[in-house]
Design goal:
OB fold (Dihydrolipoamide Acetyltransferase, E2P), globular, alpha/beta, disordered C terminus, 20 strands, single chain, 656 residues
Length: 656
């Protein structure tokens, strides 16, 4: 069965789904319901603010209020059977007025919200309870949740999924009848059973993901083939020549790396370091140590801008005879061919690259060390490709602190280092809340900073307006601020802008030509802008704490006092924790306990919709998946079956 065979999915919608990572019917089935609703469980009076509520009654007084050119609010009241009045609000959906009649009975559901003392239902939709429990789905890149539900119903009728697990493993761990598990999740008659089945399917998927990664490694990948000379004296000379002093933790991690390079086992080390702690210079010094024994090194970064930043830092080592090259996808064919020639015949020692280094035409002269920066941006398959390029030692850098319980399962038998301390010259970043009533004062503050030459990030959760919620969009905010005194200082950046323009805008910001950058979280992995002293994050409640921490780390890179503003009226426990601490590991542990492990294990890579959606994937689940994967890989027949699937079009279901 193909997506094209599903009723209601035309070419345009299929293109949108594939862009979001939904490449086949099985991917659709992994788009689990975001919630289940029933008249009893979701009665308006019973649910908390922030949860879906159901109200049934007579509609009264519906009208449209035009607040501004870009904002209109439709309001109505509904009176339930007890005579209670429930307020309804629709943002930028004035057309809904024509779909209701006053004094008629309706059943509606939507998000229960509160603004000041007013409690209301946001953007309620009509619903008919033709079954006891109704599953709700998020829309995916413009394809509505209701259409996703219809497509899933179609897949459940005609798609028969064959489990890759041996019968004895299915019996042992209860992962039986994959088709039944999917059916019971999408047509729940008992929410507890549906949640249990979600975990079983998540366990199934993660088991295959981990098994595929481990299977992709050479059998003897841990055996050392590269021999290093003792070059500690020359390494110390380079350290002493640095324009700053390394912290004790940086030196300790570097010592551990040198020890690994002289062991009998190929190095596989994860260096976790909070934003601004100086992981990159440690990695570059390790690359220099490899150079001293005659080897090449690669540092792979997720964006061209980050590559350029690392390249400029790496040029420091040219004074010691290191030849540095940068390899990116946007380079001309002639330049790329020259760089590839130099890499192949040993004319360069440090190669700073994007994922273009993974191409088949990249051949190394004598690769000794590979480093991947911002590892959560690279998929399992990409890391495995880089490992297979040569019998090299491997360092992974992570600015997203990962709890150790996850790290061991995700990366296998690696060694883990932590750089928690930041350079002493880095100022602390003060975090504060900005309610709606103080937003204009915040803009005045940004204007004064811009006039002084300081820079600001403004982060929004949406590129453009979405009728389904009240989230602030980049385009709307840019249009609004373009009519104020901020106009000469602002620029807009988001994922739909072409790559060339993105690079130009970020360079303009880095060079100070742009003082205020309005953006999505695309700036989460960015470059050091020492003059950036403020960041405003709209709707921070929509992000995990680790992601908020990454965003906050965009400022405070220089010596100037810096600020992070959380633009929201919500003051939840988790946001208060974020405002009170700058310890990324404490925030990561809290996220793991309350939101699960999805953000840490890379289920949301390359802008794709995660395959396993709306489930709390915790450390214990991942640990169990790793145990099952090890057990499975003892079977030659399973390994052969998994290899065959990896090499087919179903590769992304397992590896991404």
């Amino acid at each position: 069965m193909e997506l094209e065979e599903i009723k209601g999915l035309g070419p345009k919608r299929i293109t949108l789904l594939k862009k979001a990572g939904i490449n086949n019917p099985v991917d659709l089935l992994y788009c689990f319901p975001v919630d289940y609703i029933s008249e009893e469980k979701n009665e308006f009076a019973k649910v908390n603010v922030g949860e879906n509520a159901v109200v049934k009654g007579i509609l009264d007084k519906i009208k449209v209020n035009f607040i501004s050119r870009s904002l209109n609010i439709t309001t109505a009241n509904i009176i339930d059977s007890d005579g209670q009045i429930v307020r309804l609000k629709w943002f930028n959906q004035r057309f809904v007025k024509n779909s209701f009649e006053v004094r008629q009975s309706y059943c509606l559901y939507g998000l229960k919200k509160q603004s000041g003392k007013e409690v209301y239902i946001l953007n309620p939709k009509k619903i008919v309870f033709d079954k006891k429990i109704i599953p709700l789905y998020n829309k995916i890149d413009g394809v509505s949740g209701s259409l996703i539900a219809q497509a899933i119903d179609c897949v459940l009728k005609y798609c028969n999924i064959r489990s890759l697990l041996p019968a004895e493993i299915e019996d042992k761990y209860g992962i039986k009848d994959i088709n039944r598990l999917f059916f019971d999740i999408h047509n729940a008659t008992d929410i507890e059973i549906a949640q249990k089945n979600r975990k079983l399917l998540a366990l199934y998927h993660l088991t295959l993901q981990i098994a595929a990664f481990r299977l992709s490694l050479p059998e003897d990948y841990a055996k050392r083939r590269i021999v290093y000379r003792d070059n500690n004296v020359k390494l110390k000379e380079a350290i002493d020549a640095l324009p700053f002093e390394l912290t004790c933790q940086q030196l300790s991690v570097l010592d551990s790396i040198i020890h690994d390079l002289h062991s009998d086992i190929t190095m596989n080390r994860l260096i976790q370091g909070d934003v601004g702690c100086g992981k990159t210079i440690v990695a570059l010094l390790a690359m220099y140590y490899s150079f001293l024994s005659g080897y090449q090194s690669v540092l792979m970064a997720p964006t061209e801008l980050l590559c350029e930043q690392h390249y400029n830092t790496a040029l420091f080592f040219e004074r010691f005879g290191v030849k540095v090259a940068i390899l990116t996808g946007s380079q001309s064919k002639a330049l790329r061919q020259k760089i590839l020639f130099d890499i192949k015949y040993g004319a360069v020692d440090f190669i700073i690259a994007t994922h273009s280094i993974l191409s088949d035409d990249v051949l190394f002269y004598k690769l000794g060390l590979t480093v991947t920066d911002e590892q959560q941006r690279f998929g399992v398959a990409q890391r495995a490709i880089l490992k297979r390029k040569a019998d090299a030692d491997f360092i992974t850098l992570s600015a997203t602190p990962i709890p150790r319980t996850l790290a061991m399962v995700m990366y296998g038998e690696l060694t883990q280092s932590v750089i928690a301390a930041k350079p002493t010259l880095r100022p602390s970043i003060k975090t504060s809340f900005v309610p709606d009533v103080k937003i204009n004062s915040m803009y005045d503050y940004f204007l004064k900073k811009a006039e002084k030459g300081e820079q600001t990030y403004i982060v929004c959760p949406r590129i453009e307006n979405d009728d389904d919620d009240e989230l602030v969009s980049c385009k709307d905010l840019y249009e609004k601020l373009s009519k104020t005194a901020l106009k000469p200082y602002i620029a807009l950046l988001h994922g739909k802008i072409d790559d060339e323009s993105k690079i130009r805008i970020m360079k303009d910001f880095a060079e100070g030509k742009v003082r205020i950058l309005i953006s999505t979280t695309i700036i989460e992995v960015g470059i050091d802008v020492k003059n950036a002293t403020s960041i405003a994050i709209f709707n921070p409640e929509r992000y995990g704490l680790s992601q908020l921490h990454q965003l906050r780390g965009r400022v405070g890179r220089g010596s100037l006092e810096s600020y992070c503003f959380l633009v929201t009226d919500e003051r939840s426990e988790r946001l208060k924790l974020f405002s009170d601490t700058d310890d990324g590991f404490e925030l990561a542990e809290y996220d793991l306990k309350t939101r699960g492990a999805g953000d840490f294990i890379g289920l949301k890579q390359h802008g794709k919709t995660e395959i396993i959606k709306n489930i709390n994937i915790d450390a214990e689940l991942i640990k169990q998946a790793g145990t099952i994967a090890d057990e499975l890989l003892l079977s030659h027949s399973f390994s052969s079956k998994l290899k065959a699937v990896i090499d087919t079009d179903f590769k992304e279901i397992i590896l991404n």
